[in-house]
Write a structure and sequence with these properties.
153 residues, alpha+beta, Pnp Oxidase, Chain A, 4 helices, disordered C terminus
Length: 153
């Protein structure tokens, strides 16, 4: 499992939302926007067990998260972090996690949604298989895919 480099931790610590891709039963992509937080070398977010992303992940644990940075690189490309990994679903609720996410994204001390205390909420823990994208978290010499991503923007 790759460790999360400091510059990637910075993006994950910002208030940038993550776009999450999962696979529907027919193989088509399902995309959601979620609030994320790094904990050790995992990425966490909350959702309801009845959400399509939770159903998809219960069937197929492969997941992709994409987080856009505020900066552009020296070539003018928007920096972004792409995380490919495997998801593990834990039963909730997890009010502490939801409150940490609320503080990060809204400045509120308590999460404003019912998901905070919902008996049907779950926590998704993402174990990282690979980091890519455009940014200082990628060593271009070791990752030909990041160079390609930078060429196509």
């Amino acid at each position: 499992m790759p460790t999360i480099p400091a510059m990637a931790q910075t993006v994950l610590g910002s208030d940038a939302v993550a776009h999450v891709w999962t696979s529907n039963p027919d193989g088509s992509p399902q995309v959601s926007v979620v609030w994320v937080i790094a904990q050790g070398d995992e990425i966490l977010f909350g959702t309801d067990a009845s959400s399509q992303k939770a159903k998809n992940l219960a069937r197929d644990d492969r997941i992709v998260l994409s987080i856009e940075d505020e900066e552009r690189n020296e070539r003018g490309y928007q920096r972004h972090l792409v995380i490919r990994g495997r998801a593990r679903i834990e039963p909730g609720p997890n009010p502490e996690l939801m409150d940490r996410l609320a503080a990060k994204y809204t400045g509120l001390r308590r999460h404003p949604l019912a998901l905070r205390d919902s008996p049907t909420s779950v926590v998704v823990r993402v174990t990282i298989d690979r980091l890519s994208g455009v940014g200082p978290w990628i060593d271009d010499a070791d990752d030909p895919a990041s160079r390609e991503s930078e060429r196509v923007g």
